[in-house]
């Protein structure tokens, strides 16, 4: 039995754009409906997260972006069922500080502080300096109740240990530290740390990270760390490691926001004029159906999720999508980035994951996406299908997804006659291939008979 799950649309677009997904019981998206209300002077801005972060002038939205939030209620089922909310090994910040099951990593973090490279003064002096930013850091947490009972001194100590460890860990990953003792201390916990450091509720403010990065700026090039992570998760070619352009003016609220900024990417904001009358688009498709419409899938070389586009040729079209390596860590990061977008009027990660879910209705679709280089990873086809479809009912795709769906629907409508012919030949290719030689023989016989008849005359 199918059910209908409505998407959450940013406030400024609610009157113009409505997206709904008809989702099957097993999670696959059976149909997407885009509905736009009429209005001659309205414009629907189809924008990506990075542009919005720079251009949105509303003070309240900017203030919300600075906060470290709790996981949004809309995605709680998804986060709880998938284990995407609570840290498994390491607490960062106050929300999970002091949990008994995380105490083993507390000892590791404290030891790592002793190996910090670049500290120009004693730990006590550096700790004293951190007090100057502790008030600002404390105000970054949206859940003030979680800070009750934590004194100012305890908060400063927590920020010092957590921030120092996080910067140390990044240095170990990109091999800028030469201290083998630190490497041996951190590396056994690498996978768990990489998962936990990207949970929406498990962060230290960016000002704390900057505090420690400034002490060793020459030893921690962030472009290498971004490139390392993206290469690790298969979101780009190997040379991407050296091609990340770090925006020195961008200051996120935390590390998750930092990575989302570069994973989403930047491009010119397209604008779609809203039609005079109510406008609806219904689209049901998957990877196999796209192929039947003459739309070829292509993995983009640029590993940025916002770059989803359809290019129309004279006969066929090409749907370009960024590649992704799916494993338990990368999917956890993406779900938390999708959760972050709900506080940010952005939609690229939600739109990207929804598009993947739209294209995956059966295992053959997963194999097709693998063959095209869009999906990578060691998960079995069935695992990927179930994993992505489990996300579909709760995701909140926005304008980025709507633009692509409307482009696909327009292509299908305008080329419906050509698609019918192409689909006929695709569906009957074997029969046609078998008949053609026979036709060729018959034509040859007819030509021979005609030539004999002409000679007799």
UniProtKB/TrEMBL annotation:
Name of the molecule in the record: Uncharacterized protein
Query: Which UniProt keywords are present, listed alphabetically?
Result: Membrane, Transmembrane, Transmembrane helix
- Membrane-spanning residues: 431-450
Write down the InterPro entries for this protein, in alphabetical order: DUF247_pln
Q: Which species is listed as the source? A: Panicum miliaceum
């Amino acid at each position: 039995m199918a059910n209908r799950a409505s998407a959450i649309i940013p406030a400024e677009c609610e009157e113009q754009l409505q997206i709904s997904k008809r989702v099957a019981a097993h999670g696959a998206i059976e149909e997407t409906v885009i509905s736009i209300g009429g209005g001659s002077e309205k414009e629907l801005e189809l924008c990506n997260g990075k542009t919005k972060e720079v251009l949105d002038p509303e003070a309240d939205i900017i203030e919300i972006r600075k906060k470290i939030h709790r996981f949004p209620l809309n995605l709680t089922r998804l986060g709880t069922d998938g284990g995407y909310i609570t840290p498994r090994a390491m607490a960062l910040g106050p929300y999970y500080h002091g949990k008994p099951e995380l105490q083993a990593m507390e000892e590791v973090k404290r030891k790592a502080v002793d190996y910090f490279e670049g500290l120009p003064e004693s730990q006590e002096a550096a700790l004293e300096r951190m007090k100057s930013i502790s008030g600002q850091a404390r105000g970054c947490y949206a859940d003030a109740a979680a800070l009750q009972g934590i004194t100012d001194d305890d908060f400063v100590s927590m920020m010092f240990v957590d921030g120092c460890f996080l910067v140390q860990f990044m240095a170990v990953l990109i091999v800028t530290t030469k201290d083998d003792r630190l490497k041996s201390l951190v590396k056994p916990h690498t996978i768990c740390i990489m998962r936990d450091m990207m949970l929406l509720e498990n962060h230290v403010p960016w000002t704390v990270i900057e505090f420690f990065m400034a002490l060793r700026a020459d030893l921690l090039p962030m472009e290498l760390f971004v490139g390392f992570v993206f290469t690790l998760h298969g979101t780009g070619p190997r040379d991407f490691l050296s091609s990340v352009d770090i925006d020195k003016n961008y200051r996120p609220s935390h590390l998750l926001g930092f990575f989302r900024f570069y994973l989403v990417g930047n491009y010119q904001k397209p604008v779609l004029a809203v039609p005079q009358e109510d406008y609806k688009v219904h689209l049901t498709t998957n990877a196999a159906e796209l192929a039947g419409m003459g739309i070829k899938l292509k993995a983009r070389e640029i590993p940025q999720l916002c770059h989803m586009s359809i290019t129309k040729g004279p006969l066929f079209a090409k749907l370009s999508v960024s590649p992704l390596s799916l494993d338990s860590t990368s999917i956890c990061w993406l779900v938390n980035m999708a959760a972050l977008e709900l506080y940010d009027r952005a939609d690229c990660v939600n739109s990207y994951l929804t598009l993947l879910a739209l294209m995956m209705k059966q295992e053959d679709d997963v194999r097709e996406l693998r063959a095209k280089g869009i999906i990578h990873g060691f998960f079995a086809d069935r695992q990927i299908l179930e994993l992505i479809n489990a996300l579909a009912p709760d995701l909140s795709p926005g304008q980025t997804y709507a633009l692509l769906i409307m482009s696909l629907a327009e292509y299908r409508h305008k080329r419906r006659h050509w698609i019918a012919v192409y689909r006929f030949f695709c569906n009957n290719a074997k029969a046609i291939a078998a008949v053609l030689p026979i036709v060729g023989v018959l034509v040859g016989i007819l030509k021979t008979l005609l030539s004999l008849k002409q000679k007799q005359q």
